[in-house]
Each structure stands twice: as C-alpha cells, then as structure tokens.
Amino acid sequence: QVRNDLTGVLYGEDIEISDTESFSNDPCTSVKKLKGNDVRIILGQFDEEMAVKVFCCAYDEEMYGSKYQWIIPGWYENLWWESWINSSQCLSKNLLAAMEGYIGVDFEPLSSKRTKTISGRTPQQYEKEYNAKRGDGQSSKFHGYAYDGIWVIAKTLQRAMKYLNATNKHQKIEDFNYTNHKLGKIFLDAMNETNFFGVTGQVVFRNGERMGTIKFTQFQERKEVKVGEYNAVADTLEIINNSIRFQGLEPPKDKTIIQEELRKISLPLYSILSALTILGMIMASAFLFFNIKNRNQKLIKMSSPYMNNLIILGGMLSYASIFLFGLDGSFVSEKTFETLCTVRTWILTVGYTTAFGAMFAKTWRVHAIFKNVKMKKKIIKDQKLLVIVGGMLLIDLCILICWQVVDPLRRTVEKYNMEPDPAGRDISIRPILEHCENTHMTIWLGIVYAYKGLLMLFGCFLAWETRNVSIPALNDSKYIGMSVYNVGIMCIIGAAVSFLTRDQPNVQFCIVALVIIFCSTITLCLVFVPKLITLRTNPDAATQNRRFQFTQNQKKEDSKTSTSVTSVNQASTSRLEGLQSENHRLRMKITELDKDLEEVTMQLQDTPEKTTYIKQNHYQDLNDILSIRNFTDSKDGEKAILKNHLDQNPPAQWGSSDPSRTSKDPIEDINSPEHIQRRLSLQLPILHHAYLPSIGGVDASCASPCVSPSASPRHRHVPPSFRVMVSGL
C-alpha cells in the first residue's frame, strides 16, 4: 500500500519511475534488471535481512559508488547489518562498500528543538525523565508519539466537551457510543483542529493523518549520521550544512546523462598544416614567377610555358583545398559546412586534373611529333594542348555537376559509443563526428577514382613512349613517371589510412593534408627544379639532341660537306628523333644495295658471257658499252660519245638473224654483243634509278653526281666508279 501511494505521488509530481521490481528470496535478478534499465536512484522497501542480500547483489553488479544512490527505510536497528552478515555470501568489507552513502528515511522520534512542549517540558527533558522512569526496560522509538497521542486525546475530548456545552446542554460526553455518528463527527472535527507543539514536534492532523517531521540519515564510515529533516507541517526541508557526503564531485544523476561532444580538429594542428600549405603556395608562386620571367628562354619556351602555368595553377588549387578540409563545425555553421563539402571536392578534383592534364598534354605533343612515322611536318600549338586540358576538365565538370544534381553531398552526423567523462563527472560522453556523405557515395567515388586512374595510366604510357627522346627540354618522362609513382602510392596509402581513422578527425585531417602537400610539392619540384638548375648551369645543352651534337661535330671536321647549326627552333628539333630513325633505316638499305651491286658487278666480270665474247675479239664493243671514266657536263660531248658508239656498232635489228651464226653453239649466240647490250640496257638502268638517287647519284634532272645531305659520309665521299650510257630504250 505504501508503494502504491508513493507511486501515485511521484507520477503527480512528474517524476518518472523507470522500473519497479519485486522479489521474495533472491534479489540479484531484480538488481540486474535495474542496472539494465539504467536506474540510478533506487528506493528500497525491505527489512534488515533482505537489505543485506540486496547490497551484496549491488556490490556484485557494481551498482554503488558515485553513480548510484540507495534510499532505504531508516527504522532499522543500530548496527543492523552485523546481525545478518553471516547469512549472506558477501564479505563484510564488500557489504560496507556497497552500503556506503545510502540514505535512510524515518520519522523523527523526538524533536531536536529546545522549545517547551504542551506539557511544559522540552523534548530533551522529556527524554531524560522517560529514560529515568523506564529503567532497564526495553525502549520503543514510538514512546514520544504515544506521549503526544495521549495529549491529542485529551485535547480532543476537551474541545468536544466545550462544543457540547456551548451547543447542546442536554447531550454530554458520557453519552458517547460507537453508533452515534453526530457525536463521532464532533470528535473528528475537534481532532482536526489539534495544533500544538509536542515532544515529537508540531502535532497537526490533515485528513485524519498526523503531519510530523521526517529525518534523513546517511551511512558514513560505518555509522548513520543525521543529515537533514523535512517538516511536513511547514513543508520545509532542512539540510545540515556540509553533512551529506557524496562519493563523487556532485550528487548522482537520476540516469546516465549523455552529453554529445563534437570531435573537432585541433586548432594548433590546423595552424601548423595551414602554415605548411602557405609555404607550398609561396613555392608555387616562385615557380610561376620563374616561368613567366624566363618564358622567352629557349629552355622554358621548348617546355611549353603555358602548360607549366597550368601545372602551377593546379598545384595551388590542391593546396587551397587543405584550408577547406580543416574547417568543421567548431569553426563554421552547419549550413556553411554543407556548402564546404561541395566546394572542397570541386577544388581538389579540378586542381588535380589541371596539373596532371597539362603535364600529360605537353608530353603527348612530344609523343605525337617523335612518333610521326610518315615524316610529315607536324606542328602542334599550345592552343591545341589547351583544348585537350579543357576536354579533361569538361569531363570533370560533367561528373561533378551530375553528382551535385542527382545526389549532392550532405552533412551527416555519426554517433559513436559512449565514453566516460575524462574529468570524472557523472556523465557519459557520446562523441559525434561530421561527415560529407550522400546516398550513393561509393558509386560516385568509384567514378571519380576510375577517371583519375585512367588519366594516370595515360600519363604513364606517354612517359614510357617518350623515354628515349634525348632532348632534356622536351623529355619530362622520367619526372612524370616519378610524379605518377609518388602520387599513386601516396593516394592509395592516404585513402586507406583516412578510411580507417574516420572516428579520429585530427589524424584523418593530418593524413589528408600531408598527402596533398606532399603530392603537390613533389610534382612541382620535379617539373621546375631541374629546369631551374639547367638554366643556371648549361641552358644550351638542354635544348639540343646529344646525338645530333655529335653528328654536327663530325660534319665540322669534314671540309667538303661541313655545315653548321646555329639555331634549333621548336618545330625542327621536334623532328630530330624521327629523322634519325629514318636515317638508320636508309643506311641499312644502302648496305643491302651495296651487296647487290657488288654481286652484279662480279657477275659481269666473271660470267662465261665475257669470256666467250673476248674469244670473239669484241673488246672494242664492250669498251664502248662500259666507259670507265667520269661524265662531263657538256651535252655535245655526250652526243659525240653516243654518235661514235653508233657509228662503230650499228644497232642490230631485233628481228634479224645472221646466217653465219645459226650453226654455232647456243651459248655463243646468247653471248653475242647484241644480247649483252640488250641485257645491260635493261639491268643497269634499273640499278641506276633505284640506287643512285638514294646515295646521292644522278636523277632525271641532274647530269652530274649529286650529294644527298642525308646520306652517310662514307657513301657521299666515294666517287662513282663507272658511268653507264643508256640509249635506245
């Protein structure tokens, strides 16, 4: 009944009852349920024997100390636990540890005020007289209430008698019986009007209930200490100064107080990384100044200064994204943070594509020129490279715009497991962390990573294809390869570590910032530091092909064909590699043709045709056909030689036959001068036209030996050993 009444009163005061447990024998199950429901303040109604079992279970479940407050009846006997400790399985020290700090609630047996009561004695005087008259008899804590109760009866009867005498002279108090409701109501009204100060305090009845004083005691260091009292008549609570001892810094909470705490980026860490970022941007600005100032230098001009500016711009955009990655809810509002989610993604993506897109575009130009198999003049201007970079950025913008429209980034809050308060307060900290996420985050990141990965693979391909270009001002393949390697490795490591440290914003921001700083710095340094060093030491060497320089020195030693190269512009130097490859191919062809010519010459000198013809005494005819002397530039001379040859040897008719030879051996017939002349007229002009123009011989418009500038020195300086005059073909 007491519990039900208390429950109704608590609900009326808007006090929540988390759980109510009842038990008859083993209270441990109920104690576990209370802990599971996060009950922190427990009101207990049990006797001394059950109280020992409850506190033993509380010790086992760690439901004691600074986080819990037990409130139990205070009418137990003094040192009540010592009588029941043997009946439990709990050690005495464990039981006392669990009991420490409990609050006992009981009525006040005697008032502590030193005011005279209705009897003319103070409560202290009454207690002294009571103990003296009691002697060795057993004491009851209700003796004060019994004493005040007698005074209540006396005062009620006195007030009822006065009422009867004043209102009804015929009815007396002696006429009372239990069926007389009228007289009973007079007694009840008289009792409700009772109000005097007794040995138990102020004696007042309200709705038939005694309104007394409630005392509060606390178990402190193995004894109960009075800490306050509640006066029900005046509705006041008095707490004795500094008497209550809580085991924590403050009173226990009625439940676990969960305080959400935003995990934010440390300001010193943000300052340090921002300082490093500023240094990187200063370095990029210095490279930009160097590139613009020396843009007319041959070394810088051949390395595409406009593309270099784009590389620097991309690096500076990547640097700028670090400032945005470090701004969280501790610096900006929720709406601003959501905007930063989109802005920093755009800046980092565009910066990456701008830097590496420009680097790969100018490498593509070198590849397109030096891999030009058709040897056609090919000029690729910077405007075309800008279009290529713009196309890469257009793909980025398409992806980002679709991302923003279809599934934009939002601010999300991730809650982590509760942690104890570092300051020792009776609260639990629930860390929360802000993220930039959307519904299909994995898909969008996969698209971006796939595009960037293809871009990196394309750059690796170009670097590999142009690795043999020996002009340092044009060939950045080694540095591109190093940049791609470093950026790829750092991005993979950074992405993995960043994912694993999602719940540690300081570590995550530090990793992301250092990866961006390292990748941007190493890329800019690999592109510009070698150029700066070369420009300081030997700028001309970087703009010339080392093999081409060696060929030039050889040409200077040759007095007949000496040439000088005074300047190499961008278009001509870009074709050197292709020309060298073609020159090598032609030299191999020359070697093959030399062998063929030597073989034909040996056949002409050693064949049976010549021997048989010599036997026929036709040396003069052969000498007229093969004239081993140099040509003259006079056309009249050519006509004279031709005329002399025709006069001495009239051309034979193809369809005629000589009767004198019909009876000879067929071999001698095919070795006749007419057949030899016919064969030579067919074979030698073919060699003449196919071979001599390739090595600097005559062609249809040249009557004297010509020198091909692309021919090798060995073939160019060897004079022709014979000349073949062809007529009548």
Walk me through the structure.
The chain has helices at residues 2-12, 28-36, 48-60, 92-99, 123-134, 143-167, 181-192, 267-293, 298-302, 305-325, 334-370, 382-406, 441-465, 477-500, 505-537, 546-557, 570-573, 576-606, 608-615, 619-625, 635-648, 666-670, 673-695, 713-716; strands at residues 41-43, 69-73, 103-107, 195-198, 201-206, 209-211, 213-220, 223-231, 236-239, 257-262, 410-415, 419-420, 427-437, 626-627, 723-724. With 729 residues, it is of the alpha+beta class. Among the domains are: 1-107, 3-Layer(aba) Sandwich (Rossmann fold), CATH 3.40.50.2300; 111-209, Response regulator (Rossmann fold, 3-Layer(aba) Sandwich), CATH 3.40.50; 265-413 and 442-536, Rhodopsin 7-helix transmembrane proteins (Rhopdopsin 7-helix transmembrane proteins, Up-down Bundle). The strands form four sheets. A six-stranded mixed beta sheet has the order 1-2-3-7-8-9, with no helix packed on it. Helix 10 (305-325) runs antiparallel to helix 15 and helix 18 runs antiparallel to helix 23 (673-695). The longest helix has 37 residues, at 334-370.
State the strand order across the main sheet. 1-2-3-7-8-9
> Which percent range describes the beta-strand content?
5-15%
Query: Per the principal axes of the C-alpha atoms, what is the gross shape?
Result: rod-shaped
The end-to-end distance, rounded to whole angstroms, is 141 Å
Sheet having the most strands: 6 strands, mixed
Radius of gyration: 58 Å
CATH architecture of the domain at 265-413 and 442-536: Up-down Bundle
Count of helical stretches: 24
Q: What's the CATH class of the domain at 265-413 and 442-536, please?
A: Mainly Alpha
Which structural class fits the helix and strand makeup? Answer: alpha+beta
Transmembrane segments: 267-290, 310-331, 343-364, 385-406, 443-464, 484-500, 506-529
Membrane topology: Multi-pass membrane protein
Organism: Pluvianellus socialis
Subcellular location: Cell membrane
